[in-house]
Amino acid sequence: MNFSLTEEQKSVRKVVRSFVDREIIPYIKEWDEKGHFETDILKRLAELQLMGVCIPEEYGGVGMDYNTLAIVCEELERGDTAFRTAVSVHTGLNSMTLLQWGTEVQKQNYLIPQANGDKIGAFGLTEPNAGSDVAALETTAVKDGNFYILNGSKTWISLCDVADHFLIFAKTDPKAGHRGISCFIVERTFEGVSSKAIKGKLGIRAGNTGEVFLDNVRVPAENLLGFEGEGFKIAMSALDNGRFTVAAGACGTIMAALEASLKYCEERKTFGKEIGRHQLVQQMIAKMSANLEISRLLVFKAGWLKNSGKRNTQETSLAKWISCDAAFEAANDAVQIHGAYGFSNEFPVERYLRNAKAPVIYEGTREIHTIMQGEYALGYREDKTLRKMLPAWPFEEILV
Ligand SMILES: Cc1cc2nc3c(=O)[nH]c(=O)nc-3n(C[C@H](O)[C@H](O)[C@H](O)COP(=O)(O)OP(=O)(O)OC[C@H]3O[C@@H](n4cnc5c(N)ncnc54)[C@H](O)[C@@H]3O)c2cc1C
User: Fold this and answer.
1) How do residues 249-272 score in pLDDT, each as one tens digit?
2) Nearest ligand 1 atom to alpha carbon 201
3) Cα(116) to centroid of ligand 1, in Å?
4) Cβ of 124 below 6 Å from ligand 1
5) According to the 3-state scheme, what is the secondary structure of the chain?
6) Which of 57, 363, 382, 397 is an active site residue?
7) Residue 396 has pLDDT above 90, yes or no
8) pLDDT for position 397
9) Average pLDDT over the chain, rounded to whole?
10) 88 lines ligand 1 (CB under 6 A)
């Protein structure tokens, strides 16, 4: 077991950190206030080759390991949750799913342009009447010759107005419950696809989230990902990767909350001493610091399993559950440490708190992960090898 980062991983951390310090932190307060999603950041991330960091070079990425993706996500979320969310859906939920389940033609047509950042991918699972209960989704896909006709609507879709490609989950057999779900690669340019951003969000205001409408969209049959009826398994495997990036990002929120709090602990004095000298403030700092370490260890363990080509639903769910709760607590305590000043946007901690709520809800709510962990502990649930597994790393060993 080796707990140290490689030189390559350290250098990626350095690059992303300085990018965030230079190109996100100085502007994020304004973007957040205006509800503006700065798409140039995605272009800049593509220039830095960070939109496909763990996708093999032959498919347009840079071929680094899965924990390097975690490092990118952690550092991005230190700047703001919006940009980590973008990488989560583009790389974690979409590109890695194409890598795992796609045909060679699908990888050539969709994965390569996504991994090199020319095109942006998103993930359309949630619907107005189907969130945690995925099997309740109502979007339909009806076969018509060499096409499927898709009808329905998706909601709370990150990058809804920005993405070029969507993975859309629809029922090919509405009577078959979760076994009747299939997954399709849908291009924004297909006739009948439209989107609309959701306004008035609590957090991730500098991000783009909203609805995607599918009105008699003709999707070529070759854009079916996996087999008909395999969509539920594909969605759950995609979430193994999305949740991994969310968990890593949560470490970035804890890091940002801790950094801001440490600074304030030195600046602010009460009762004749810096507030950091008060034991109850130290308790909040100690919790943040311990939770950062715990969360990172859980994330890197899940990444290590991914690198080994093993199923990791249990470990990824645990990392996502614990780190997202810890990030919310860290942001909440950071506001507390800042007193009344933490209640205004003069300091960034109120944004951390608003942002930290979403990851406790998306990619499996806190309650869903609690249930999953209970079921694993009780032996009611186990992870079995899938028909198609995410490639182990290093890639050259398995792709030959
Ligand atoms: C900012 C943001 C971005 C998002 N981006 C995407 C995206 O890109 N793509 C996408 O497909 N979706 C996305 N989502 C949607 C997200 O994944 C869902 O909101 C989430 O799965 C929860 O579904 P729901 O909101 O319908 O809540 P519900 O499923 O209706 O749950 C409501 C409440 O009931 C609880 N609950 C539900 N079932 C149970 C149960 N069995 N036991 C105990 N408690 C239960 C939940 O924990 C929750 O507290 C996003 C959401 C947000 C907020």
Assistant:
1) 999 999 999 999 999 999 999 999
2) 1
3) 30
4) yes
5) CCCCCCHHHHHHHHHHHHHHHHHCCCCHHHHHHHCCCCCHHHHHHHHCCCCCCCCCHHHCCCCCCHHHHHHHHHHHHHHCHHHHHHHHHHHHHHHHHHHHHCCHHHHHHHHHHHHCCCCCEEEECCECCECCCHHHCCCEEEEECCEEEEEEEEEEEECCCCCCEEEEEEECCHHHHHHHEEEEEEECCCCCEEEEECCCCCCCCCCCEEEEEEEEEEEEHHHEECCCCCHHHHHHHHHHHHHHHHHHHHHHHHHHHHHHHHHHHHHCEECCEEHHHCHHHHHHHHHHHHHHHHHHHHHHHHHHHHHCCCCCHHHHHHHHHHHHHHHHHHHHHHHHHCHHHHHCCCCCHHHHHHHHHHHHHCCCCHHHHHHHHHHHHHCCCCCCCCCCCCCCCCCHHHHC
6) 363
7) no
8) 54
9) 97
10) no
